[in-house]
Design brief:
By secondary structure, the chain is of the alpha/beta class. Helices cover about 35% and strands about 15% of the residues. It is globular and about 60 Å long.
């Protein structure tokens, strides 16, 4: 039976804005309060989805969230009609309104952690929505995320869904941005690689000093238990605290893996040699030949990696056994990074081609190609059980581009978030989107 890695890309929401909400994310903070272009952002993301589909990769769509989140504002003491709640928040606590309008759900690498059926004890694909409790604007996402994933992967014979972990610092969970799976074939058992920034209870693990470590060891271990993963199929590794303090807020900013290959920076991890040996040994038990490409700091600094998002790229397996690397335009603009990539693809290594995409709207807010997609390994039967409305096709692409053109604004400044009309625009757009993607009622305004 054939198996596939399906990339489900996040559709950018109508309230895409540069709120500078993510402390530790250099791009997010440096572009704070600039005007954004939600329409351009959504179209850039759709263009990438279409391109990958046309290259023969399985591609899906993950819907955005309802914003502003009026229910969240009500829980913080604002009252009255929806319009009154928004106006009160704008007047009394603008930072809370900005947070409630965040479109950061577009970065669906943080939506959940996914384990394929070949790895799990019950032979189902398991999803655990990430609690994202390190940042308030993202901590309010998981209830809707769970409903959307449930509507996409509804067949309980094939799919299992878990609630987010407890929303406390000890179980900080950032989803697949700190999770990679290595395997010989997508349908065969593999090794799931969990990367954490700190331990909540074990003081032997060093912690960063400037920026928060968002993923805990304990959260990763809990997800592995929930998914029924075997000890032989799991490796835990710690991020280098010093690179977190340089803006590497998730592992997918400093490393990316797929199939039998890990592409990483020299300074990405602690105890790198021990970790690589463990990955090699465990994958070998499943018939795999683990390999790694280490990018030396002498050629690409951590600062270069963070500014270019070299590692926040998509590493895709091609039919001939080689790899394709999808990178943002910022990689080509960085002389050292682009020189390294030219040398990489001219060698006889696994990565043979690099394709560049313009994702400026997402990049300016701190998310590159890898942030925009959630990877789900599925066999043919499981893929057939996925809600067909969310699988990208040429007609769906055309419909979604028309939908964006109809509902999205060309410009959004922070002051525009106080306009109650924006909420109505967002709800109208999302109500139509659920019909396009055949999701049913997944948003609070549709349910309440």
């Amino acid at each position: 039976m054939k198996s596939y890695e399906v990339n489900f890309d996040g559709l950018v929401g109508p309230t895409h804005n540069y709120g500078g909400l993510s402390y530790g994310n250099v791009a997010s903070q440096s572009n704070s309060q600039q005007s954004s272009n939600p329409k351009e952002a959504a179209l850039q993301g759709l263009a990438k989805m279409k391109a990958l589909m046309e290259m023969g990769f399985q591609q899906g769509v993950l819907a955005p969230q309802e914003r502003p989140d009026v229910a969240a504002l009500r829980s913080l003491g604002f009252a009255g009609s929806d319009a009154q709640v928004i106006q009160q928040a704008a007047k009394q606590a603008m930072p809370l309104l900005v947070a409630s309008c965040s479109a950061s759900s577009m970065w669906v690498a943080n939506a959940a952690t996914v384990s394929p059926s070949a790895d799990t004890a019950d032979g189902r694909v398991h999803f655990t929505a990430a609690n994202l409790n390190c940042k308030y604007h993202r901590s309010i996402e998981h209830p809707t995320t769970s409903r959307v994933l449930g509507a996409m992967f509804a067949d309980q014979k094939h799919f299992a869904h878990h609630s987010a972990l407890p929303a406390v610092a000890q179980f900080g969970d950032e989803g697949a941005a700190n999770h990679t799976r290595f395997c010989r074939e997508y349908g065969q058992a593999g090794v799931e690689f969990f990367v954490f920034g700190r331990s909540a209870f074990d003081t032997r693990y060093p912690a960063p000093q400037k920026y928060p470590a968002r993923q805990t060891l304990e959260a990763s271990q809990a997800v592995a238990r929930l998914h029924g993963l075997s000890d032989d199929g799991v490796v835990y590794a710690q991020q280098n605290p010093s690179v977190i303090d340089q803006g590497v807020f998730h592992n997918d900013v400093i490393a990316v893996g797929n199939g039998e290959l890990l592409f990483h920076h020299e300074d990405a991890f602690l105890d790198t040699d021990t970790m690589l040996a463990e990955l090699q040994g465990k994958l070998a038990k499943f018939g795999g030949n683990f390999q790694s490409i280490c990018v030396p700091r002498s050629q690409v600094t951590v600062e270069d990696a963070v500014r270019s998002y070299l590692f926040n790229s998509q590493l895709l397996s091609r039919a001939d056994g080689t790899m394709l690397l999808i990178v943002p335009e910022e990689c080509r603009a960085n002389e050292r990074v682009w020189q390294y990539l030219q040398g990489l693809t001219s060698s006889a290594g696994m990565i043979r081609e690099v394709k560049v995409f313009d994702l400026k709207q997402s990049m300016q807010n701190g998310g590159g190609p890898a942030c925009l997609r959630l990877r789900v390994a599925l066999n043919e039967t499981e893929l057939a059980a996925v809600n067909p409305g969310v699988i990208m096709t040429a007609p769906l692409y055309d419909t979604l581009t028309q939908w964006v053109g109809k509902h999205y604004r060309d410009r959004l400044a922070e002051s525009d978030l106080a306009d109650p009309q924006l909420l109505l625009e967002c709800r109208t757009a999302l109500d139509e989107l659920t019909q396009i993607l055949k999701l049913g009622a997944v948003y609070p305004f549709q349910i309440n």
